[in-house]
Amino acid sequence: MGVGADASVEADGPAPGATGLLAFHQKRKQDSRDRLLAAAMAQFGARGYLPVSVEDIAAAAGVSRMTFYRHFSGKGALAIALFLSVAQEAMPRFLRIGRLDYRDPATVRAWIDGQFAADRENRALLSIFTQATVEGGEFVKRGHEYLADNIRALGEHIPAFALDPDRPEDRRRWIEAWLLIYELKDQSNHAALGSGVATDPLIIDIFTDRFVAFVNG
Fold it and tell me: Start and end of every HTH tetR-type domain (predicted)?
């Protein structure tokens, strides 16, 4: 065995420094992705979503156009990445109602009021996402998938939301749940942007009544 065995083990293992080099490249790739996301946020916030180009974002991030396309297929894909990041952070706050007395109107009202308040704080982001939906397609699709994820997650704690959209006996009820959550989030967004009837304080009372009626139905 001796030296021959040791040499064989070394030959089968990774080349010296390979693991560190891989980690370096992965970190560098992540750093450039993060810079692109940060640059896009700054550009979208300053100029709006629609006027900003891929070239604008890449230049602001200090990377090449080629590097941009290593991470994202286009501006829309980057907007989706931003949306999913924000949505992931917001999900625990939204699902909090499942750990509370979701049949109590006062509790539900306070929860909904908290959702509206959080959206007001994020109105700049909401404005960007609203503009991104103009391009439709994949962004809208991912938004709808996010709503379905909300219903599925609520169903883990609230029996009324434990529905399978593919089961004929659940389908109508699932659509009712989808509309409730969609309209709640949509009107919260409109309220944050100061748009339409959503700014009326009565909207929170109306959604409180609808939510309580749904979970007790």
Answer: 30-90
